[in-house]
Amino acid sequence: MRLSRYFLPILREVPKEAEIVSHRLMLRAGMVRQEGAGIYAWLPLGKRVLDKICNVIREEQNRSGAIEIMMPTIQSADLWRESGRYDDYGKEMLRIKDRHERDMLFGPTNEEMLTEIVRAYVKSYKDLPLNLYHIQWKFRDEVRPRFGVMRSREFLMKDAYSIDLDFENAVVAYNRMFVAYLRTFARLGLKAIPMVADTGPIGGNHSHEFIILASTGESQVFCHSDYLGMDTPEEGVDFQDPAALQDIVNRWTSLYAATEEKHDEAAFAAIPDEQQVSARGIEVGHIFYFGTKYSEPMGAKVTGPDGVETPVHMGSYGIGPSRLVAAIIEASHDENGIIWPEAIAPFRVGLLNLKVGDAATDEACEAIYAELTARNVDVLYDDTAERPGSKFATADLIGLPWQIIVGPKGLAAGTVELKRRADGTRETLTIAAALERIIG
Ligand code: ATP
Ligand code: MG
């Protein structure tokens, strides 16, 4: 992509309305535009990151055996009357009337609709296990939308729903998602810690919030410091092997980790002082077993091996991709801007032409651009007439992992500069060596 033909509305001023660093950087880097309270348009750079995050999530959901669908954003109120949640949900639900005066709503979540789909098609234990997910916009009329896309009213969610014959099978489904989440967050460059969360009237211990530690987090969390160094499951983990999954879950739940609502002072005090972590955290995912809470009132039943019909056991598993964009920036930035992890960087390389119009510099940049493009490396070529200082500032602000800096002086000696955004290291290399370093 040539920057001269791209749409990257950089802000030089620090936006006053933004209270936290991720919100400031997202506005300054031209990633999002506020269109209303808690409602954002995603501009090209932001959209690329959002898509990359969704793809990592999708790959790990698919690997675990979940199947992608797409449910609508607009739902019928009648569906929610069946579960009893139409009245319970309160003001967070955006209620709408269509032209026939029918009550509709903009979905804040999809348990009811998914249960309705299951009820229509799934009749036998032989159709199970099943896990269906979608990545779709949700609307929750939050009392206090704030911190940009971190807590917005319209936000993207990956929500998966598992359907099983009984509790034992539902636990296997829960563990699959638990392991898939560990892998997903690790691939996004995050240390997400599964913390015991509230199960409400369902009871049991199958509810975990995946939390990343950040000073700007909205909740107070408590955990053992060893979580920060724990190895995440390998790509080859066998999702068909319940014992292997249980081992991983056991290890990841063996130490203390809880959100404020579930905090146990005594258990926390038993951790050696130097290993106690009490910090602020951002919830990036939540997995939850809720049994027959919806299948029972809505009549989603299957016939078991014994010929008896029973309501299916379900769980739901959410991740917030739009919140993740902000959370990743909170975890990875410096005073000059964002530092994207390679896996989700909007472009891998920024190519900076320091003297547009100089024949040799233009020619070298064109050659590098063509070579990277041919090798399927995403590159943003700064071919604008801006001064070098401003190009450096923009490149650091938008945080691409690599910068190739091309100017007439270096070229005269046959070299370019290669800068790694993560640690700021710069190397003077021939063009071939710089490309080799990136392409490998
Ligand atoms: P929170 O406690 O932060 O309000 P929640 O418990 O209501 O979140 P869930 O219903 O578990 O959230 O939703 C699943 C995921 O969706 C959350 O883990 C989070 O990543 C994301 N999410 C929830 N609410 C918002 C929001 N207002 N803005 C952005 N992302 C959100
Ligand atoms: Mg939650």
From TrEMBL:
Keywords for the protein's UniProt record, in alphabetical order: Aminoacyl-tRNA synthetase, ATP-binding, Cytoplasm, Ligase, Nucleotide-binding, Protein biosynthesis
Keyword Cytoplasm on entry: yes
InterPro entries xref list: aa-tRNA-synt_IIb, aa-tRNA-synth_II, aa-tRNA-synth_II/BPL/LPL, Anticodon-bd, Anticodon-bd_dom_sf, Pro-tRNA-ligase_IIa, Pro-tRNA-synth_IIa_bac-type, Pro-tRNA_synthetase
Enzyme Commission no: 6.1.1.15
Subcellular location as annotated: Cytoplasm
GO molecular function: proline-tRNA ligase activity
Reactions accelerated catalytically: tRNA(Pro) + L-proline + ATP = L-prolyl-tRNA(Pro) + AMP + diphosphate
Pfam families reported for this sequence: HGTP_anticodon, tRNA-synt_2b
Ligase in keyword set: yes
Domain Aminoacyl-transfer RNA synthetases class-II family profile: start-end pairs: 38-341
Protein family per UniProt: Belongs to the class-II aminoacyl-tRNA synthetase family. ProS type 2 subfamily.
Function according to Swiss-Prot or TrEMBL: Catalyzes the attachment of proline to tRNA(Pro) in a two-step reaction: proline is first activated by ATP to form Pro-AMP and then transferred to the acceptor end of tRNA(Pro).
Quaternary organization: Homodimer.
Protein name: Proline--tRNA ligase
